[in-house]
Every structure is written in C-alpha cells, then in structure tokens.
Amino acid sequence: MKKKGSLNKSNSRSTLAVKHAHDYIKEKVIDFIIPPGEHINEVELAEALGMSRAPIREALNQLYIGGFVTFQSGKGFFCRKFSAKDVADLLELRADLESAAISHIGNKEARPDILAIYSTWKEVATKHREMNMDELVNADEDFHVKLAALAGNEERVKILRNINERVRFIRKIALEKEPRRSNFIGEHLKICEALMQQDQAELIKLLDYHIGINSSQLKPIIHEGLARIYAEEIL
Amino acid sequence: MKKKGSLNKSNSRSTLAVKHAHDYIKEKVIDFIIPPGEHINEVELAEALGMSRAPIREALNQLYIGGFVTFQSGKGFFCRKFSAKDVADLLELRADLESAAISHIGNKEARPDILAIYSTWKEVATKHREMNMDELVNADEDFHVKLAALAGNEERVKILRNINERVRFIRKIALEKEPRRSNFIGEHLKICEALMQQDQAELIKLLDYHIGINSSQLKPIIHEGLARIYAEEIL
DNA sequence: TTATGATATTTTGTCGACAGAGCATTATAA
DNA sequence: TTATAATGCTCTGTCGACAAAATATCATAA
DSSP secondary-structure letter at A128? Predict the structure, then answer.
C-alpha cells in the first residue's frame, strides 16, 4: 500500500522533515524494530514518512555519527548491530562517565537540584507498581542523567544520553530480570541520601555497585539480550 | 574469477563526495579557518568543492552530531563556538576518559602494544627538535589515543578522538606555551615506564598530573586560546 | 545438478530546480 | 533625524530526476 504525501494535515513547519525522519528512524533502531544489520531502504522510508529521500539521507547521516546506523559506501545504511563485547564496552563507558561525574560534583550543600532528584525518585518509589517497563526504564535513565548533570558538564551528559539510547534494549531486559524491583528503587534513594549527607566514599561505593561494573550477572543479561535481538542467529 | 583487466579510472570514485566534504569542512572548523559562530554557506562550499549542495548538507549533518558545527532551523549551519567553560568541560571529559582507560588496562605483562608505544615515543624524544608544532600535537594525540586504546574499549577511543579534534587548537597553544618541551616528552616516557613496571599508583599519579586536571595553568591557556580565536571580541 | 554469464530490476549517490523563509537595502512616514 | 514599511536578493529545505553501482533474475553451459 502506498500513500501519497498530500495527506499532510496541519503540516507543522516547525518540525523539520529531517528532524522528524531522525526521530522516527532512531526509535525503530533503538527498539530493534529494524533488525540489527538490516539494510535500510531510503525509498521505503521516504514513502512511509511522506517526504523525499533528501531529508531521509540527512537524518541517516546524523544517526551514522551517533552510532545508531552503519554505512557502507555504495550500499547505504544499515541498522547497527553489536557483539556482546560492544555492549559491554558501552556499559563500561557509561559506568566510567557516571563515576567521573559524581567525583566532580562540587559543593553538595543546600542544592535544590539534589533535593529535586530525591523527591522525584521518592514519587517513583511509591507508584512504581503501576508503571510499565518503558516508564520504569525512562524514569531510571532520567535519574542517572540528572545525577550526572549535577557535575555541570553538559558534554558528558550528552554522551551519557547517547549511550543510554544505544543500550536501552539491554537495560530493559536487566530491569525485567531484576528479581526484586524494589532493590534498584531503594538503591537510588540511598544514592540520594549519600549525596545529601556528602558521604563521598559511600556514594562511590553505592554507585559502583548499582551500575554493576563488576556485576557477574551482567554477562548473562547481555547474552539474553543479544539472543532476543538476533533471534535464532548464532553469535 | 576476475573481470578483464581494464584500467578503470572510474575507481577513483572510491572517495565519496560526502566524505570529501566532511573532511574538508572539519579541517576548516578544527583550525578555526572558519571563525567561531560564523554562518556556513552551502552554495559557496559546493562551488569550492565542485559538487552540489546535497553531499555538503549530508556532511554538515554529520559534523553537527560530531559537535563541529551548530544548526539553527531555517538559518543553516554555523561553525561551533565555545566559552571557556565549554573548553574546560571537554578537557575534563578527556581527562576522565583517559583515567578510566588506564584503570581498565588488564594484564600489562609482556604486551607488545605497550612496548610499541614506548619505542615510538622514544623516537619522538630524540627528534622532537626537528618537529614543528603540528607534528608534535599529532604525535601527542597519537600517544594518548594509543594509551587509551590499551584498555580495548573502541567506543571510548572514538570519543577521545572526537574530543581531541575539538580541542586541538587549545592543545596547540598549550604546547607552544610549554616552557620546556622536554617536560612533557619526559612525562610520556615515565608513563610508559610505570605501565611496564605495572606500578598502577604511580601511573595514575603521573597521568593525573600530565593531563593537568587540576593544573592551574590550564585556565590562562584556555583564555589565551579563546582570545586568539575570537580576536578582539570580548568573552 | 552446479556454475557461469547475460539481462533486468532495484537502489544508491548526486544533481539541478524551486518555493519560501530570512536578510539587506531602499523608500516612506513621523 | 529615527523608525517603519516595502522591495528585492540570498540562501535554506525539500523535491524529482538520472546515471552508475549493486543486486536479483533468468538462461545457458559444463
């Protein structure tokens, strides 16, 4: 079925076609609605979004640098795919950046932003039972990003956001498999408390454990994740 | 089987226009041949490179995500510009990532890659007097990237390469101002030695000092750099 | 059958064109 | 004079088109 682009009602010029394409494709890649390694057909996308190939290609070039798609000269763009090591590398990086961030938070006294994080998460703690997995992952990412943002390094936050998007599918699985959801909820609260009490040593300890740098259950989660993505393909 | 061996000059098409434009524009931005904040004229670039605007725009979209140019809807692309804090943030990030890298280098025994870095730098040490500033900065970046690469996390290396490119103009000034060039040359050698001797504590100490996280002379260098870039403009 | 070659189809990479937004300049009014 | 409106020019954002490369399809030979 083909649809004509003439049906664009209330065509909001405020949202550029490139941006729309970017967000649309990124979402498909993040959730692996486009399977890993699969070729991305520009014409197909252009028709689906009711635009020409030009903005599609511009968006794909953005996603290429962002690590969401790969590129082969003459063949075009493909959904990113990764090995267990690739995922582990991204998770390691994320842990390193967050660790660095908390070590760079300066004076922690009387900071409304810390309090805001705390109270937001306390709300999550009370109603996490009514939240679905997507909402939970979203809240979790938000917590960690805001934590890192306390250090005030916007560039680091940007990178962390990018990594979060790229490993989101793994984080979803990690949360699903979390035996007792209240564990990680409580850990976030403890992190906030250590922050407010300015207990740096405790803070580092808590975060290291929470992010699970040396967590032995990380490997099986990654493999579970890859198994799902790649279906019956052998890694 | 191979096809008939015809001298295919068409193979010189191997360098895509997009990639050419990307490298060309990036170079101008890195060296601030395009002044910070200046609007980038697509038609001008297209004519200068003998191509149409399409590949130019694709390249610009890549550079946008890479942090080399900014974008304003309806106005186009502009050379990146930054404040003293922006530079400091990038340098902080770079330091954090390198620190994290060396803490993740596993077994350091009998590693040819470590020896290779050492011997390469020893060569630099002997002939650094005949090297110009660009060569020196290049060698320095190379050293640090290879150091970080020892940890085996390709994604981190990618980010470090990106940051190096973005702060290169500052690093050039830092090197110019280095009172005794042999200082930093010697520090690299010491870092290698600490690596080979597996003296982790010493290694961290050396690197922290070398990268100058808390170096008080960092601030004046940044300001000197920005002053040059922005010429008489006030920051 | 499998391999090879010719042919048809798809898809990329790039081009030139154009409407409209943005910007500069001139003309007009206060 | 200064401020505002009109005018024309520049440049962006997107489109449709096309050649060449890549891929799929089919035919033929071993």
Answer: G
| Interface contacts A/B by beta carbons within 8 Å | 74
Q: B16-79 has which fold?
A: Arc Repressor Mutant, subunit A (1.10.10)
Q: Is B63 exposed, middle or buried (0-12, 13-18, 19+ CB in 10 A)?
A: buried
Between CA A163 and CA A64 the distance in angstroms is 14
Helices B168-177 and B154-166: crossing angle in degrees, nearest 10, is 70
Q: Does strand C come within 7 Å of the CB of A111?
A: no
pLDDT tens, position by position, A192-208: 999 999 888 888 888 88
* B181/B205: higher pLDDT: B205
The SS3 assignment for A70 reads strand
Closest nt to residue A72, judged CA to C1': C12
* Strand D nucleotides in reach of protein CB atoms, 7 A cut-off: 11-17, 20-23
The Cα A155–Cα A203 span in angstroms is 23
Provide the CATH number for the domain formed by B84-230 in this structure.
Answer: 1.20.120.530
pLDDT in tens, B21-70: 999 999 999 999 999 999 999 999 999 999 999 999 999 999 999 999 99
* Encoded tokens for B182: 């042999």
Q: Which CATH number fits domain A13-79: 1.10.10.10, 1.10.1040.10, 3.40.140.100, 1.10.3720.10?
A: 1.10.10.10
Q: What is the pTM of this model?
A: 0.91
Token pair of A20, please? 């729309």
Beta-carbon count within 10 A of B44 CB:
10
Of residues A189 and B106, which shows the higher confidence score? A189
